[in-house]
Known about the structure:
Number of strands of chain A: 12
CATH class of the largest domain in chain A: Alpha Beta
Radius of gyration of chain A: 25 Å
Largest interface: A-B, 35 and 30 residues
CATH superfamily of the largest domain in chain A: Response regulator
Oligomer: homodimer
Order of helices and strands of chain A: EHEHEHEHEHEEEEHEHHEE
Number of domains of chain A: 2
Structural class of chain A: alpha/beta
Number of helices of chain A: 8
Strand content of chain A: 15-25%
Distance between the termini of chain A: 46 Å
CATH topology of the largest domain in chain A: Rossmann fold
Strand order of the largest sheet of chain A: 2-1-3-4-5
Shape of chain A: elongated
Helix content of chain A: 25-40%
Amino acid sequence: xxxxxxxxxxxxxxxxxxxxxxxxxxxxxxxxxxxxxxxxxxxxxxxxxxxxxxxxxxxxxxxxxxxxxxxxxxxxxxxxxxxxxxxxxxxxxxxxxxxxxxxxxxxxxxxxxxxxxxxxxxxxxxxxxxxxxxxxxxxxxxxxxxxxxxxxxxxxxxxxxxxxxxxxxxxxxxxxxxxxxxxxxxxxxxxxxxxxxxxxxxxxxxxxxxxxxxxxxxxxxxxxx
Amino acid sequence: xxxxxxxxxxxxxxxxxxxxxxxxxxxxxxxxxxxxxxxxxxxxxxxxxxxxxxxxxxxxxxxxxxxxxxxxxxxxxxxxxxxxxxxxxxxxxxxxxxxxxxxxxxxxxxxxxxxxxxxxxxxxxxxxxxxxxxxxxxxxxxxxxxxxxxxxxxxxxxxxxxxxxxxxxxxxxxxxxxxxxxxxxxxxxxxxxxxxxxxxxxxxxxxxxxxxxxxxxxxxxxxxx
DNA sequence: GGGGATGCTGAGAGTCCGCTGAGAGACACG
DNA sequence: CGTGTCTCTCAGCGGACTCTCAGCATCCCC
Lengths: 225, 225
């Protein structure tokens, strides 16, 4: 668990550093915005603790730059009670939480832990095509209320097709994506597995989500057939 | 991009509303389940943000009703950490993603964007000539609402002509582009396939999108005939 | 209006493509 | 060591598609 602390006041930085290390975190300290952005670019932090009042590029600036670059690492803002930014600003500029100085270290630690808890279960959303659904994270899928029992290969095939609904995917593409890029066997394997899949997701329901496009490939109907 | 936010807590609803509008979304707010279902029935939302704890019909109820009605709009559930429903429930009842309160707006926005990316995959543009259309990615085509069932060769021929509307293309050019550059058979094959195509895209509709230019080739009318 | 050139069309044959059932090999588990 | 599950290969079938060919229609120039 790596944490970046952006803070120019030496004593605060040192205190936080010491405290977090005692809690088994890896800590990096940046004393200004430039250094912070440099570190963030080259490291993968679990949380960033960011003081707003910094020399040069301030915290406000750092946070916006960060978000603009598509970095979604949780940011905890530190503000002075009498500062020019208030809590609303802090959240508006892309922070996930804020803390007003002075704060106790226990509170800071609690907030950091809360952010970590929240950001770790990054589950991918459920894929859908009509009443056909597949949850990649839970590795479950079904049609309507009925659960479907698929083998790993069948599951992979369906997942890939659900990620490309209403698009024809060729057998070679499927081989490369669902099997592996260097697959050298008989491409007929795709037909075989499409057959298996149909017998599980279509035939029993009298539907046809997977359509054959002769000479081109297969297409999953976005409405589920 | 229209988003429905179902949330009874005024301050949260207002904050989300403000944030989403700043990001160029059209936002509707519903403060209870009844109103939400009413709005959903009459509008086409890109995403629905749904709080589970609502007065009257709760979010659980709303989501199930929605799915039962065959509406597949992505739903993002908001749950309180200490609520009676957990994430597993949220996904089981037909949601696409969930977020635990408290959440930061950036995270919410990121999740909404992820759902949008999935439901509106950027696809190659659909080719058109009047009411005649062809979607290369989905490998589908039709005239108006009517779908046309073409063989691969017919499809290739129509696609090429749609990419060169109002332009005379010679038979040798068609042979080279739709068949292959080394084609050595009877060039009459082009006439044969133009015939097949006409019988599918023109004759049944009393139209004539493909015109013969004697001694030169064929031209597809950009207005679809 | 004749006649050659050009384009259209129906019939049919051969080929290619995709689907399926049977079964072998790999692997995990009891 | 047997049993069950999963993955993959193979061969045959049936049907869809492509293409050829020959005869007919149409156009255009003389």
